[in-house]
Amino acid sequence: MTINIIFFTITITKRVVSPEEAIHNENVEKIYEEHRDRAANYMRPY
Questions:
Q1: Which Pfam families has this protein been placed in (predicted)?
Q2: Predicted TM-score of the model (pTM)
Q3: CA-CA distance, 10 to 44, in Å (whole number)?
C-alpha cells in the first residue's frame, strides 16, 4: 500500500493598481461595453 501526499502552499497577496492603470482599465471597459451594445443592435432576435 502506498500513500502519496502532496503539499501545496498558496500565498495570496493584494494586487496594487496604479491610478494610470485604473483609468486605463475603466476606458477599456467602457469601450468594450459600447462595442457589445453596438453588436447587440445587429443581432436579429428569433
A1: Bac_small_YrzI
A2: 0.55
A3: 47
Q: How many CA atoms lie within 13 A of 42 on its CB side?
A: 4
The set of cell numbers assigned to 22 is: 485604473
The rounded distance, in Å, linking the Cα atoms of 31 and 13 is 29
**What gap in Å lies between CA 46 and CA 44, rounded to an integer?**
6
Structure letter (DSSP) for residue 45: P
Beta strands in 1-46 (DSSP E): none
* Domain residue limits, the chain: 16-45
Q: Tens of pLDDT along 29-39?
A: 999 999 999 98
